[in-house]
Task: structure prediction
Amino acid sequence: MRLALHPFFMKPLHIIVLLIMCCGYPGKAQVISGKVISRKTGEPVPSAFIAIEEKKLNGKYQFLQTDANGHFTIKLTPAKYRLRMEILGSCDTVINSIELRDSAIVSIEVKLPPYCRYDASEHNSTCPVCKKKRNVIPILYGLPVGEMDESAYYYAGCERTCCEPHWYCKKDKITF
Result:
């Protein structure tokens, strides 16, 4: 018994087209690769979360994490992308427009968490107005349990962003 092939498969050009359709075009891939590092220490950030959104397909994401050395690599089709990177318990950093063209390799370095104007005062409780520490109390965030000692702490509420002040000056009534 002879095995007969459909006439479509008898032509070499048809076989090449079929292979390309099944296996993809053997050209260079479009790649976004990068490294996530700590803005404060300069060290790589392992397990940072990365969400990649194709801009014209609003709401469709691909997710990945950095490796132990803070590196990541992903192959994508040519398009415009938005990258959102974050580490647990910190703000995210967004790169709004990365455009991948044919045979593109885009390399980026991201520092997390993003800059916060209150970082400089994190360990310095001197009021920037009166230049004194004696009227300054720490700011507490979250839901207080028990009695609130408003003379020792300034309660700022439950909602947090990633850039909050650390201190409150009772005399000048400012947060910094």
Q: What stands out?
A: Residues 12-23 form the longest helix (12 residues).
